[in-house]
Amino acid sequence: MDRRIEAAVRIIRTETHRNVPVRELAQHVRLSTGHFIRLFKAETSLSPKQFVRSLRMEKAEALLDDSFLSVKEIAASVGVGDRSHFSRDFKKLHGRAPTIFRGRDRSAANETQ
Fold first, then answer.
1. Closest Cα partner for 35 from 81, 79, 4?
2. E strand or H helix that includes residue 27
3. Contact 68, 96 (CB under 8 A)
4. How far apart are CA 20 and CA 2, in angstroms?
5. Residues 3-29: tens digit of each pLDDT
6. Euclidean distance between CA atoms 90 and 98, whole angstroms
7. In a designed cystine with 43, which of 5, 11, 12, 49 is the match (CB 3.0 to 4.6 A)?
8. Cα–Cα distance between 72 and 55 in angstroms, integer?
9. Do the beta carbons of residue 56 and residue 16 sit within 8 Å?
10. How does DSSP assign 51-107, residue by residue?
11. Cβ(17)–Cβ(81) under 8 Å?
12. How many alpha carbons lie under 13 Å from residue 73 in its C-beta half-sphere?
């Protein structure tokens, strides 16, 4: 992977909770915004925005599995302020709402007991 994109990915991973503007990422790796977006997509197959959304949903999935935080708290902790926006994005990626996703593990555990 291009070292500039690797640097941008490191920033995105450490700043997942915050909306880092694409312009800021491009400036950090010393590329124009347009060139940065094209190179990022060529290297990761996702736009920077899609990449951030994907990382947030991965983190949210882990929190739904491993914590007792509410969906609203999880949305806030991954940097999505609006619960309905979070739920819509999560459902688009996983095929079910966060509350149903969380309930699948508890239902399976109850069935085995």
1. 4
2. helix 22-28
3. no
4. 20
5. 999 999 999 999 887 889 999 999 999
6. 7
7. 5
8. 17
9. yes
10. HHHHHHHHHHHHHHHH----HHHHHHHTT---HHHHHHHHHHHHSS-HHHHHHHHHH
11. no
12. 6
What is the pTM assigned to this prediction? 0.81
Distance of alpha carbon 43 from alpha carbon 11, whole angstroms: 16
In this prediction, residue 102 has a pLDDT band, given cuts at 50, 70 and 90, of: confident
In 3D space, the residue among 16, 7, 12 whose CA is nearest the CA of residue 80 turns out to be 16
Q: What is the DSSP letter of 46?
A: S
d(CA 11, CA 29): 10
Exposure b/e, 91-111, CB count within 10 A at least 16 = b: eebbeeebeebbeeeeeeeee
